[in-house]
Specification:
Length: 237
């Protein structure tokens, strides 16, 4: 079997993160009445202090640009020959599920370096241009869905699957950008620990921790999201 896939990898910059503004706090014990005993003359009893003000709103969250190379969603494949199984009664051609399953294993391993397990595709799928069907697999212990579209009836397929993010590349990108923001070398780990890839829908939060590279006890939680176009953003939790 030969295959000549074309894989599209999204590598856009970080998306900006909107600011979060704090709310002014009311004055304790009722309103403050300035100068209750007459005007205060500057320098009469030392430096004059301005009347109390509500606390300043917190600074907007930091954000930076970067790339996530391991963001994968779509691959084009060509099954061997016509990519269809034997003729059934009445001459109906069907897609050979074993061929599609082998392609799913190949494109997933090529994209993220993990061999999917328990790959399953339906049998008796009619070979026809525009036809679609679904397959399933397990990648790094996580269920992944694959949608297969027949571009024609000669074995050209477009396989779309749940978005997979390589954890090491996500952590490396975040470490670079958080380190630039706080001006300290940091390392980043994302949950759940021990994963090679994450199955992540656009906007689904990823919990991570940024730690001082020289003092791991000095750390902070960050919330990470990756938009539909592949742009990741983070805020300090």
């Amino acid at each position: 079997m030969t295959a000549q896939p074309t894989t599209r990898i999204t590598t856009p910059p970080f998306a900006p993160q909107g600011p979060h503004h704090g709310q002014p706090q009311p004055q304790p014990f009722g309103p403050v009445h300035p100068q209750p005993f007459g005007p205060v003359h500057p320098q009469s009893f030392g430096p004059a202090y301005p009347p109390p003000f509500p606390p300043a709103p917190p600074a907007a969250p930091r954000r930076r640009t970067g790339k996530i190379v391991g963001l994968v969603a779509v691959a084009l494949v060509l099954l061997a020959g016509l990519g269809v199984g034997a003729l059934f009664l009445f001459g109906q051609r069907t897609v050979e599920p074993e061929s599609v399953q082998r392609e799913i294993v190949r494109i997933t391993q090529t994209a993220v370096g993990v061999v999917p397990a328990d790959v399953r595709c339906p049998a008796d799928i009619k070979a026809e241009a525009g036809g679609t069907f679904a397959c399933t697999a397990t990648v790094d212990g996580q269920p992944v869905g694959y949608t297969v579209r027949q571009d024609d009836d000669k074995g050209h397929l477009t396989i779309t699957y749940d978005r997979l993010i390589k954890v090491t590349q996500l952590e490396s990108t975040l470490a670079d950008q958080v380190g630039k923001d706080v001006d300290v070398a940091v390392s980043v780990t994302c949950e759940p620990t021990g994963r090679t890839v994450l199955v992540n829908a656009p906007g689904t939060p990823i919990a991570c921790t940024a730690a001082n590279a020289t003092d791991p006890t000095d750390s902070a939680k960050i919330n990470v999201t990756v938009a539909a176009d592949g742009t990741p953003a983070y805020t300090f939790a």
